[in-house]
Amino acid sequence: MIRCATIGLRNRGRALTREAQACEHIEVVALCDTDEQRLQDALQDAPGAQCYTDAAAVFANPDIDAVILALPNTLHLTLGEQALAAGKDVYMEKPLARNVAECEALIEAQNRSYKTVMVGYQQRFSKTACQARALLAQGAIGEITSATARWNRRAAAEFLWERGDWFLDPKISGGGPLIDIGVHKLDLCLDLIGYPNIDHCVAKARYGIGKRVGDKRDKNYAIEDALDAWLFTDGIDIRVESSYFRNQEQEEYHDIEITGTKGGIRLDGFGEATAWQVNDDGSITHIEVPEIKTHTALDHFADVLLGKIELRPTPEQSRDLQKIIDACYESSANGSRLIPLDAGVLV
């Protein structure tokens, strides 16, 4: 049994604690937060767990094997390094860090420690993702030619305002909807299409609505309302959309659509995968989607620690994803200039 501690007990930390408790090979034996009330409330999710208000005490406990970090992005590097130096395996809520430099530092710490670092891109392990992965492996839609990854909200969810002011400050969070929700779709999309080399990107962020709404709440909303980007490869063009504020008809939608030389696949964020082939007359023949048994990201983390499977995503993949995010923000900040990326990205 892997003895685990959750550090950070707001909404996401609580959810991860419950998910960990449901894993066959994980037991949450410790909880940590600077807020005593959050600690007491979280005991509902892990009865009998030891309670800490100092992460250093968690790291010093030799009876704890691994930690789940559900913290503001600005703390990922510091506490990630401390956990690894203490010999703990780390499951970290995305992103790996706020920028590429911090990602590199965490990878160096991981290499020194010989421990595991997994970033929680949970959508890789969803039912629709596994269905799409199986169909793509069969060549059901032919050679992939394009992909679209979208997560758009008409207005920010209420819990955005409850996360704490750090989340609204790009210097602390690293950015807004792109690095928070859009990155989930981008990560899954790249995973499904086989990590093509991203040569260039161009992006445009929009601001204004969130600041107006934030001012009415006495909140300093400094992140983007929305960011749209194009990523270019040798053979596949990728469109990325993300927003907290976009004046669309639907309250929220998120999906991935991948097209190829024979047909396409769509992963509806609220439903199942659908797949089709396009006939010469333009009509569509739907492809049967297989039933697939799935497991959670924390199940995967446990299986990695037990030596059953190889880690995905690797910290290096998470770093390369951050390179794309950084390049998107750079492009937008420079008048949507075309930004070249290193040839090694996502190899």
Question: How would you characterize the overall build of this protein?
Answer:
The protein is an alpha/beta fold and 347 residues long. It has 2 domains: 2-119, 3-Layer(aba) Sandwich (Rossmann fold); 123-340, Dihydrodipicolinate Reductase, domain 2 (2-Layer Sandwich). Helix content is 35%, strand content 24%. Strands 14-13-12-11-7-10-9-8-15 form a 9-stranded mixed β-sheet. Strands 3-2-1-4-5-6 form a 6-stranded parallel β-sheet, with helices on both faces. The protein is globular, with a radius of gyration of 20 Å.
Write a short abstract of this structure:
Helices cover 35% and strands 24% of the residues.
Ranges with pLDDT <50 over ≥5 residues?
Answer: 343-347
How many domains?
Answer: 2
* CATH level 4 superfamily of the largest domain: Dihydrodipicolinate Reductase, domain 2
Largest sheet: 9 strands, mixed
Large-scale geometry: globular
Q: In terms of quaternary structure, what is this?
A: single chain
The largest sheet has its strands arranged as 14-13-12-11-7-10-9-8-15
Order of helices and strands: EHEHEHEHEHEHEHHHEHEEEEEEHHE
Task: Please compute the radius of gyration using only Cα atoms.
Answer: 20 Å
Helix content: 25-40%
